[in-house]
Amino acid sequence: MIGFLYPVFGLAALAAAIPIVLHLMRRREVRRLTFPAIRYIRRAEQRQAQRLRLRHLVLLATRVLLVLLLAVAAAGPLVGRGGPSDHRPTALAIVIDASLSSTRIVGERRILDVHLQNAGLGVDLATPSDRIAVFSATRAEAGAVALEQSGAREYLRSVRPAAGVADLPGAIVRAEIWLETLADLERELHLFTDLQSVSLEAGARTEPQVQAGDGVSVIVQAPELPLLANGTPGVPRPEIVPLTAGRQTRVSVPLHWFGPAAPTAPVILRLVAGENVVSATEARFGEDALLVLPPQDSGWSQGHVEIDHYGLAADDRRYFTWLVRPPSTVAVLGDPGRFVALALEALENGGRLRSGGPNASEVWLAVGGERIAEGLAAGHATIVLPPANPLDLARLNVRLEQARIAWRYETDERSGSRRVGAGSSLEGVTGTEVRQAYRLILRGAATRDTVLLGLDDGSPWLVRGTTIDGVAYLLLGSPMTPDASDLPVSAAMVPFLDALIGDWARLAAAERTVLEGDALLRLPDRARTAMLPDGTEVPVEGGAPFNAAEPGNYAAFDGEGLALAISVNAPLREADLAAARQEELEAVLPAANWSWMRETDAADWTEGIFKARRGRLAWRPLVVLLILISIVEAALAAAGRRADVGRAG
Amino acid sequence: MKTMDDQRNRAHLLDPAELDALGGLELVARAVVTGFIAGLHSSPSRGFSVEFAEHRAYRPGDDLRFVDWKMYGRSDRFFLKQYEEETNLSAHVCLDVSSSMDWRSREAGLLTKLDYAKRLAASLTLLLIRQGDLAGVTCFAERVLGRTPARGTLAHWTELVRQLAYQSPGGETAAEGALEEVAARGHRRGLVILVSDLLVKEAATRRTLKKLRHQGSEVLVFHILDPGELELPSVGDAVFVDPETGDEVGARSAELRGDYREAVMSAIDEWRRVCGSQRIDYHPIATDQPLALCLSEYLHTRSRLG
């Protein structure tokens, strides 16, 4: 049903009759005349039809020409195809994919070098009225970098292979946002990429900044590359972090392979500390290799592991930084027994530890849990040696409870001896016979504490935990007496105590000394200079962000010494050189006019860029032409009418 | 003030419509021919290429016009001039009396094309007979409606005029039939005069005219046109009806007038071209033109015949 709010206005519909009445009033009676010479009327009609047809054809041609010219005008015709530098003022956004994969050699040059050269050609061909911005596909923090021509050249010269995985969709969006701010200029986006699959893993954007018809031209230079199998070492992982000065450790290095089938022959893996190869081994891709890092002096050290060249050369090295601490200072609380005291003396004599008072010591050796709560609260790593007399366990457990440690000791009623199980890298400890061992019972919920060593019956024998403040404690399952185990009288006693005090008691959460991808470092306030991976030292501003884009080892120095050391590696997935399909990139390109250049030839590139913008807009001659043709059209139409009237007259 | 005698004396120059004031068809024709001949600066007989041959003695009953008065002055005897050949020309007027001829564009001051053509035919035949030629008339529409054989007496002309006067219009035009019949009957050198508005089957008519020429006949075509046919009348939107066929054509006269004029002129030019190629004398005549023009054209043609 249809209703009306003001039905009276429906009467206005009667006005529809007005044109009908006018039409009827104006309808004329047609006269009928006897006229013998109607054959001449017919011929006249034919002549008129022919003439009209001809005139209509001419008018049609004129009007089609007008429409064509209007379309040409709308398309922005350019007069004079000069060189590429002869173009209208253009906002030029350059997106550079400088990820490690772009260092792949094609012909005799790296893809990145060719891309930088061609990007430089685009900058060279720009005019002072152009605006230029360069966007790095691997540096998410880099927004629009609006540059003068010289600045753009300098920027391109400074581009090095970056550790980050390229994020092409993100870079394109950033470029589009910049281009959107310059809608009054012609706009062109030059995208250089090796089109690695991982560079598109961010996926298609849902909201393109540049809409279709915005007149943005996108020119993509992405060479067509065959699949390249690639082998690369993973990031080295030292077993002991931080390492104590004078102690060696093992370094685990996974070997990765990306490609159809990994080579079966072993690959030589070298460990380089500083500038020296300190160890080497053979391993196969897909396995973890173990290298020995020999004893080091205390302080920050940097190095890398490397393999021979497989696939991409740039990822044959993985850099790492590690900290070597000086020997621990130990305070013994209570009587540790003769054998422990002798071992401590031997270690001190060997320079592996220093004795000190409780307050000045990093590590407390608390016999029977002496002052454990106090020591942990004060930040002293504490090693608990259980009492030889089981009757003293009650006091120990009270102390543990006071220190908020979730473990307690209980006597073990089981008879017979047991042995220390596997798990220790210390020679002689594994298999040591244990005749007296307390049961270490975890109270309450599971904690993050770990069992470093256990007995062959599965019971824990050495437990390491940390307080909520991150202070480490170690709980040993047996007294350090010859009655309790063979350890005090064995050759493993000294190394065991060395590891107990020097390594396990000081184990801390590994500091982030190895970063993945482009890193924006915050330098210490006191930093004055920084050393780059190639060994050059550059002045820096303390506290300012520092861009560590290139893979390698970085160090910052203050006036007195090292202030920061860190290693930067490319993410492992960057080593996967699988190429993305062209359609995948098309999905992330703005809905604008875009073209592909799969060849990297410089001449082709200079011919292709600014192509749509070359020459000058032919507005004036076009407008003049339009006016002239309009006049011709009007004259033709008027002449036709005059001719009709003339004939009629 | 013009008197009736004055009008008779210059009847050949009068507007055809004014001629009707003189009387019937016969009277008009006589007035036209008499006026026309009187207006000539020299005797029309000289123009007939009649060559003097010898003299003979006068005998009672001979026409005094041929008495050689100079010989009489020298010899006091009457001699008549004897001409080498006195054979008459046989002329035949083919008169279109179809429905299209019975039309005039305005009532006042114009004759219908048929009335004009009848007066033209009467005048032409009288002029022919007075010059000693034979004259006949065939009236036709879609077929031959009446035929008067060629003879050279005034009594014959009177009969011919009477037949013309009573010939009523009607039917479509098929000039080729009448001309074929004339061609079939023609047994000596003659003159065929077609008087028609030429709203005919053009190709067939032209073929027949060509055939007449091939038979040795001289052909004279008077294309009778009403002034209203030369210009399309200003009647706005109108439906034009063909009086012969009843065909109708709707047209907007204001828009079509120029092309119509060009179409008529083009048709006239085409007739002139076709006739010229066959040495046929073609004369488009509007019905508001004096009949003397037609007679002059005739004399021009006749002079070529000798």
Task: For the structure shown, list the relevant keywords.
heterodimer, A: 649 residues, alpha/beta, 7-stranded mixed sheet, 6-stranded mixed sheet, B: alpha/beta, 11 helices
Percent in strands of chain A: 25-35%
**Number of helices in the DSSP assignment of chain A:** 12
Which stretches of chain A of 5+ consecutive residues score pLDDT under 50? none
The beta-strand count of chain A equals 38
Number of strands of chain B: 10
What amount of the residues of chain B lies in strands?
15-25%
Structure, described:
The complex is a heterodimer of chains A (649) and B (306). Chain A is elongated, with a radius of gyration of 42 Å. With 649 residues, chain A is α/β, with parallel strands linked by helices. Chain A contains twelve helices and 38 strands. In chain A, 26% of the residues lie in helices and 28% in strands. In chain A, β35 and β36 (562-569) form a beta hairpin. The longest helix of chain A has 37 residues, at 38-74. The model of chain A has no long low-confidence stretch (mean pLDDT 83). A seven-stranded mixed sheet of chain A has the order 20-19-21-22-29-28-27. Chain A has a six-stranded mixed sheet with strand order 7-6-3-8-9-37, with helices on both faces. Chain A has a five-stranded mixed sheet with strand order 12-18-17-14-15, with no helix packed on it. With 306 residues, chain B is an alpha/beta fold. Chain B has helices at 4-9, 16-19, 25-39, 69-75, 113-130, 154-166, 175-185, 202-214, 227-230, 253-277, 291-305; strands at residues 52-57, 79-83, 90-96, 134-140, 144-151, 190-196, 218-225, 237-241, 248-252, 281-286. The two termini of chain B are 42 Å apart. The A-B interface holds A 28, 30-45, 47-48, 51, 643-644, 646-649 and B 99-101, 103, 197, 199, 229, 232-233, 235-244, 247-251, 253-264, 266-267.
